[in-house]
Write a structure and sequence with these properties.
36% of the residues lie in helices and 20% in strands. By secondary structure, the protein is of the alpha+beta class.
Length: 167
């Protein structure tokens, strides 16, 4: 009863995520791609972490890469946030395990619809540049399903071009 399913025309994934952000009612927001999933206890862990770090605007954790069948590939262990590392190294923060304080969205920060592959990377750069505080939970919160039809894999050239433009 606490979920609302909406299926309607949109202008792609980024537009759909922004629509979800605008409709969401929680204190903390996030998105999951269709085949990704949160690990048991992840929401409670984020809630606890947020109460212990009230200055955090963005909370991100580690994730597991899993195969199409759900079998384990590897843990994607993240770093403590560093703007320069994000800018020059690239997007090390997994969108699958990243949560945004409602005030970020209310301030008008939404994903840029230009970006089809690196929308998360551009968003993280823009939020950090605007002074939002990122905090890292050093544990896996979600699983990212890796397969040959991932947008990042299928649109590798666009991913490269978008990443260069962001940097």
């Amino acid at each position: 009863p606490h979920l609302q399913w909406v299926s309607e025309p949109d202008k792609g994934q980024t537009d759909a995520i922004n629509k979800g952000f605008r409709k969401a009612t929680g204190d903390w927001l996030m998105w999951l791609n269709a085949d990704d999933y949160l690990l048991p206890g992840a929401l409670a862990r984020v809630q606890q972490f947020a109460s212990e770090h009230p200055d955090a605007d963005v909370i991100y954790g580690d994730c597991y890469f899993v195969k199409e069948d759900g079998s384990f590939m590897r843990r994607k262990r993240e770093f403590e946030f560093d703007f320069n590392m994000l800018l020059f190294y690239g997007c090390f923060i997994p969108s699958t395990s990243t949560f945004y304080k409602r005030s970020v969205i209310e301030a008008g920060f939404l994903l840029d619809p230009y970006y089809k592959v690196c929308m998360d990377y551009e968003y993280f750069i823009r939020l950090a540049y605007s002074g939002y505080r990122f905090e890292h939970i050093d544990e896996p919160l979600a699983c990212f399903r890796w397969h040959d039809s991932n947008i990042s894999f299928m649109l590798a050239e666009r991913r490269y071009q978008e990443g260069r433009k962001i940097q």
